[in-house]
Amino acid sequence: MSEYGEVVDAATIRVERILPGPIERVWAYLTDVDKRATWLAGGLLEQHTGGRVDHVFRIHELTGEGDPAEVADRRHGEVLAWDPPRLLRHTWSTGGDLADSVVTFELDPVDDKVRLVVTHSRLPSRDEMVNVASGWHTHLDFLRDRLEERSPATFWPKLEELRGEYETILP
User: How far apart are CA 124 and CA 154, in angstroms?
Assistant: First the structure.
């Protein structure tokens, strides 16, 4: 299994990770607001189909870098599928007048580990695909670090390095 995301179709990227289990623990890191803030973003997640999702990206919460009050980005959406602890799907605002994309998290136990597959679809351009692939790659590495009780690397240098790599490997 490659750590790199793969293009599924012209508008979809898929990233897979094998993570330390159990599945309920990984699910908690996807859905508990405080745990999610340590690897991805804080913000509301109404835990039912039709619920609201807010992502408030504060890099300081991930790695301790920068100003704790600074918000790097905000995204919102709606929960489209809620099936604990195996499936979460929600829309992801792309901003402006573009249609929302869709993020799907699928979890499967593999012995004492968990296979997490993140599929981000309805991406409007190759540039957005490069940004999304490098972002998910970075954040999922941070998730693995948290699950393995390690401190993650610095955010911006890692993201920029991966963005350069994805720029060369994505079609």
Answer: 28
Annotated domain spans of the chain: 6-169
In this prediction the pTM is: 0.94
Answer whether 14's CB lies under 8 Å from 118's CB: yes
Which fold does the domain 6-169 belong to in CATH?
Answer: Alpha-D-Glucose-1,6-Bisphosphate; Chain A, domain 4 (3.30.530)
Query: What's the token pair of residue 121?
Result: 């679809």
Q: What is the pLDDT along the chain (171 residues), one digit of tens a residue?
A: 579 999 999 999 999 999 999 999 999 999 999 999 999 999 999 999 999 999 999 999 999 888 888 988 898 999 999 999 999 999 998 666 667 999 999 999 999 999 999 999 999 999 999 999 999 999 999 999 999 999 998 999 999 999 999 999 998
In angstroms and rounded to an integer, the radius of gyration of the C-alpha atoms of the chain is 15
Answer whether 5's CB lies under 8 Å from 136's CB.
yes
78 strand-pairing partners: 52
Find how far residue 54's CA is from the centre of its chain.
13
Q: What residue type is assigned to position 127 of the chain? A: D
Q: Give the pair of three-digit tokens for residue 161.
A: 């390095």
For the chain, how many residues are written? Answer: 171
